[in-house]
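Can anyone check this?
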Amino acid sequence: MPKLAIQLAALVLFLSALKGATGLAQSNAPSPVDKYYEEGQRALARGQFQEAEKIFEKLRELSPSVAEVHANLGLVYFNEKKFEAAVPALRQALKLKPSLTKTETLLAMSLSELGKYREALPILEKEFRRSTDPVVKRSCGLQLERAYTGLQRDEKAVEVALELNRLYPDDPEILYHSERIFGNFAYLSVKRLAEVAPASIWKHQAAAEAWESQGSYDLAISEYRQVLSLDPRRPGLHYRLGRVLLARGAATNSQEDTAGALKEFSDELELDPTNANAAYELAETYRNSGEIEEAEKFFRLALQHYPDFDQANLGLAAVLLKQEKPATARELIQRAIAANPQDEVAWYRLAQVERILGNEPGQRRAFAEFQRLRQKSSELEAAKGMFNATDVTKQKVDGPTEP
């Protein structure tokens, strides 16, 4: 963590900025030791750690009783990832001057890097709770996640991850480690579920959702059917099974799976007429097969219970365009954009409607926004490169990308 290390260097140097506090200066005339120390500080500030290491190692020989020399040498070793060398240097600094709290924190981080989590934990916990410095708090939090995970205290690791997400919501490193911790905790929870209740509904449902997220449709379908055999009226399960059948049907071009999905969505609505997702999936399947009247009925049913359902508004707008009702379609598209302004399909359909209504400036603005969002979406998908589960089937641009 080079950037973090340089920031920590500034914190430690602050403690020893006054030469009188270091014990290196005894008169107004600078001694050779003073010059070494100043050179070492400058090298640290510039991030020239190899040079700083040589200087502070020389200073350690010349002034072995000065705590700040050992503290800065430990800091240099930490920046160079020489954690085994950093630990004794930092311990010696604290032995000579226990009040160097930042040095204590750096020692805990070094111990954590070496896998000595039990020894590091009390200091990391204390500093993470009390520190008001964002650099130190962030670093302690990341090391706490490492220590808790290493000690198999996974619930505590999740607690720290949640707090770090709150404090640093846009920090990519924080988000990366949080994803790993949450994923690991989910895996361990499912594993524990399989151990304590291997034949339970909850175990089969968890397995089904896991297989579905990985695109393993056959295994997911088998597990969802196990759940329904145990509880045929379980809310949401017919819908989930229908989603997987629909996905497998699209992947294999199976009309049988598509028909099976429609039945599951219908069964879900019989159990829960307010399930807007099930109504939407029925509507979208009918729209794609050209059954416009059925599609309109189920889109309207979805919107009856969930008026701001952006995908249902877009789906119904597409139906109305087929029925040559562009003005009404525009109202629905604008509602969808208000709910989700980042949806490229909404802007594309708005461009279509504006063209039909003869609003050329509006068409150009909507199409320009569609192109911008499509480019952004392509970049995100390329960076992600993995299966991305969604709650419902997303609307797509129909035909060529010119409205």
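Reply from J.R.: I decoded it. The chain has 21 helices and no strands.
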